Amino acid sequence: MELNGLQGVGKARLAALHAAGIDSLRDLLYAVPIKYKDLGAPVCVRDARDGERQTLVLERSEEPKLSRYGGRSRVTCLLRDDTGEIQCFWFNQPWMRDALQKKRHFMLFGKVDRSGRRPKLLNPSIEDKLRIVPVYRPIEGIPQKTHENLVAQALCFVTEICPETLPQNLLEHYALMGAAEAICALQAPQSMAQASQAQRRFAFEQLLLYQVAVREMKGVRREGHALEIPAGAEKAYWSAMPFTPTGAQKRALMEVAADMRKPTAMARMVQGDVGCGKTAIAFGAIRLCAQAGYQAALMAPTEILARQHFESAKRILEPMGVRCGLLLGGMAVGEKRAALAAIAAGEWQAVIGTHALIAEPVRYTRLGLCVTDEQHRFGVEQRTRLLRKAGETQPDLLVMSATPIPRTLALAMFGDLDVSVVDEMPPGRMPVRTRIVPQGKRKELYLFVRKELEAGRQAFIVCPLVEEDEADEQRKAVETHFEALCRGPLKGIPVGLTHGRQASAEKAAVMEAFTSGKLRALVATTVIEVGVNVPNATVMVVENAERYGLAQLHQLRGRVGRGAEESWCFLVAEENERLRALAHTNDGFEVARIDLEMRGPGELLGTRQHGVALLPGGVELGNLKLLTEASACAETLYADNADAETLQSLRERALETYNRAFRESSAS
Where are the alpha helices (DSSP H) in 504-587? Predict the structure, then answer.
């Protein structure tokens, strides 16, 4: 049966479905609801709870009224039950007046608002029976009830439309629903627990496909450069450094050097807590690459971090004979032309920059090593574009991540990479004291900040987080906060301002002034989240801290505590469980564990932004237990030759699902 065979699908609706990417009954059934309305048991007006979405059975007390204003509309109607009256409002739904006039008794589901004299129900939907109502991604020309009706028709053919894709032994071993049963449970659940089990089935399947895909990618690593690195080169590098490395740093660089000496291209991630010394390991790899006669490229996610790496590289690597250069997108035309010429001629052995490093005009000379800092900021495509700059022979790849995640999770999520964990901190780093400050205590907070600044120390002040698509609003917010501080609690103190909308030169000048101590405080957005190293900074203030994830707050906290003085991180927010957890530990691995429990690995690792959607319609990455189960399942399938048919089927589907990432990775 085709889509146009469904009752209610004419030419216009068929075109609307096609425009939404739904071309078959299978597509329609796999476009699962994005959320559900659980109508639950009805409550009476007297017991309706403020701020919650609830179901009420009501009788109309008066005729509905329609009012229009400024191109908008509002329908109001007073309804009641035996315990009281409730005023209902429908905004920009003028047709609700006619719907309300047709009968006197209604079952309504909506958000209760008890502010004011009389309780209100905002934009409630009219329901016909108690059930769990699926909510679909909006499709222009297909109302929600029509979408639900089309799905109900298609479900009659679910067993032939959605054949089983996993073998019976896996379904039984991991207690998974069958495909057809799971689709029915997602589209028309009898309970939220049933919908959750269906989501678990498809999340497991997609995680399993991902695990198979990354193992296949790892298996096709191409021949690389076997770098001729002198014996003892790693030890000589550490001997030339102005500090004694930790055991974890030495171990990680030894693992990197061993990979670089092999004829197959290295693909390794170095991950560890903020301040554990990953940059020194990366610089060691660059030094070894240069010694072998090859060029290295280090790509950072922000210009601030790229500049900081460049300054550090000049200080550390150039005395060792490694010529370093900087390439940024915001450079002046003449400066950029000179940089491109130096890269192409091989004058720079270490090229440091931002995404500008993967721009089309950039030509490298014997590119032997690619380093990406802050792994979670880059997708597979960006990483691959940098690797492809080396030409036919794949260069070594080293990625660094300051999101300290459990090793098992790192191996599961980044299965195409070998992992080195830096689990020691350099001696002498003092733990940062973290305090939660309610809004009512901001005056006392800034008195403390001013006292620290007057004592010769420095402070970061991070402004409220604004949605990514509201960049101008974020600029206005940080500028307004900057002006208020300069007029008020920090009046007379040199304060700088930086944000993502500044010109590169302006941003660089502000950071240089703060790093050198000319500015005592820096008001910023999260552009200073990673890499900024100012040992004299002892105070981090995060406004509206409740808007940030724990991992991001831990990153921000890592900007202080880098010198000998006691350091503080103040989280301006009302106290909650997440913030209390952060205040009680400075251990990034413990913070990551808590973050995983509260948010799941999808948000922590950024796979929601950079990964492949797990299922059309929005089934998200499951919990850590499910992820490790899928990883263990893949490991077993590869180790057990008896189930070759299942593995081959999964291989084909995995490469089809992740074909773009796989194709780019293997073509690089």
Answer: 504-515, 550-557, 577-583
Residue showing tokens 């900074």? 537
Q: What are residue 53's DSSP bridge partners? A: 111
Beta carbons within 8 Å of 481's beta carbon, 6+ residues apart: 461, 463, 464, 523, 543
CA 201/CA 178 separation, integer angstroms: 8
Is-contact 296 285, C-beta < 8 A?
yes
* Nearest to 416, CA basis, from 397, 400, 388: 397
Contact between residue 248 and residue 419 where contact means Cβ atoms under 8 Å apart: no
CA 250 – CA 241 distance, rounded (Å): 12
Helix (H, G, I), strand (E, B) or coil at 363: coil
Ramachandran area for residue 356 (φ above 0: left; ψ -120 to 50: alpha; else beta): alpha
Q: Taking the CB of residue 194, how many other CB atoms lie within 10 A of it?
A: 18
Q: Is the pTM above the cut of 0.70? A: no
- Are the C-beta atoms of residues 493 and 453 closer than 8 Å to each other? yes
Which two tokens mark 165? 């894709």
Name 542's bridge partners.
Answer: 462, 571
Q: What are phi and psi of 182, to 5 degrees?
A: -65, -40
For residues 560 and 432, the answer to whether their CB atoms sit within 8 Å is yes
**Helices 192-219 and 644-657: angle between axes, nearest 10 degrees:** 90
Closest CA to 441 of 529, 573, 614, 311: 573
Nearest of 491, 548, 544 to residue 520 by alpha carbon: 491
The CA-based angle 199-410-661, given to 5 degrees, is 70
DSSP per residue, 97-166: HHHHHT-SEEEEEEEEE--SSS-EEEEEEEESSSSEEEEPPPBTTB-HHHHHHHHHHHGGGHHHHS---S
* Structure letter (DSSP) for residue 89: E
How many angstroms from the chain centroid is the CA of residue 181?
32
- Nearest 5°: phi and psi at 54? -140, 165
288: nearest Cα among 341, 225, 343: 225
* DSSP H/E element including 281: helix 278-291
> How many residues would you count in the chain?
668
For residue 257, count other CB atoms closer than 10 A to its CB: 18
Q: Structure tokens of 306?
A: 């790229």
CB atoms near residue 655 (< 10 Å) = 18
* Rounded CA Rg of the chain: 29
pLDDT (tens digit, 9 = 90+) per residue, 108-152?
999 999 988 899 999 999 998 899 999 998 899 999 889 999 999
| Calpha distance 186→263 (Å, rounded) | 49
What are the backbone angles phi and psi of residue 48, rounded to the nearest 5°? Answer: -60, 130
Q: Is 70 left (phi over 0), alpha (psi -120 to 50) or beta?
A: left
Q: Is 224 helix (H, G, I), strand (E, B) or coil?
A: strand
Question: Which one, of 382, 384, 390, lies nearest residue 363 by Cα?
Answer: 390
* Tens-place pLDDT, residues 294-323: 999 999 888 888 988 999 999 999 999 999
Token readout for 630 is 């899928």
| Structural domains for the chain | 40-130 (2.40.50.140), 164-219+633-668 (no CATH), 233-422 (3.40.50.300), 433-585 (3.40.50.300)
Mean of per-residue pLDDT scores for the chain: 85
